[in-house]
Amino acid sequence: MMDAAAIRAQFRERGFVVDEAFATAIQLMLALEKPLLIEGPAGVGKTESAKTLADILATRLIRLQCYEGLDAMAALYEWNYPRQMLHARLSETDRSSLADREAEIFSERFLLRRPLLEAITDDRSPVLLIDEVDRADEAFEAFLLEVLAEWQVTIPELGTIRARHKPRVIITSNRTRDLSDALRRRALFLWIPYPSLEQEIEILRARTPGLDARLAEQIARVMPILRGLPLHKKPGVAESLDWAHALIALHRDHLDTRVLEQTLGCVVKVHEDRAVVDAHRATLAPLLDEASSSLEPGGYSLKNDFGFGSVSTPRR
Q1: Phi-psi domain of 57 (left: phi exceeds 0; alpha: psi -120 through 50; beta: other)
Q2: What is the CATH number of domain 4-78+112-191?
Q3: What is the β-pairing status of strands 168-173 and 159-162?
Q4: Which helix (H) or strand (E) holds 207?
Q5: How far apart are CA 203 and CA 55, in angstroms?
């Protein structure tokens, strides 16, 4: 069993920077064989943590993506009706009894395993990611509690199927609705906040090795300001990483007004939010390098184009 220090190191090797609280939560989840409920803002790495854990454990990741209207059958199993109908027609001339034909049609060869049943019947303990459980309704949450408690399901045509190996379960939530006390009681809990300045720099350097050190710091200093604005969608770590990759692709080694305007779509994903950012340009301006881009070859300031300054006098 890995301790917290080893877990931190393993995650760090894969470019996922975690703190001691995170590593300890993973350690306890593995030791106690209890689900881990991870909450936090969108884009801070909740889903990625399950993918990375599966890689560390060298096991399969099985993902159940929750959504409004998700029901038990869609999460557990379905019968392959087209194949069943085809088999029934082809076997009409068989001399087998009706009971035998029915048993054949409702056998495992015609069963479509969905994520929960896959996790129960896997050959070794997988990592089961129940992603964005808050998007599903309360009825599905109640059904999920039963599965997590017993690790068995009953299929009327086949009987009860019990877990061969108990999955390691990570449940994520963006807190779009309150989860039940029953679910919280049955799980360990971890809150992942937006990273600190130092953590975000470390994340950027770990996930984008070619990123200039000064540029990494600029991105890490701009992101908390953007997250503090009244945006419809606040940018997470995923957006800061996208921004870093975009700047590398454009061969940029610093942020200035023009580069910010050109690449703002990497972090601001709602049209109205661009107006909010523009209204707070004075807050962002001190973090941008203007010395190298204040003048175009013709002598006109780029600042004025994007509302950060005034037009300079053309060179004669």
Answers
A1: alpha
A2: 3.40.50.300
A3: unpaired
A4: helix 197-207
A5: 18
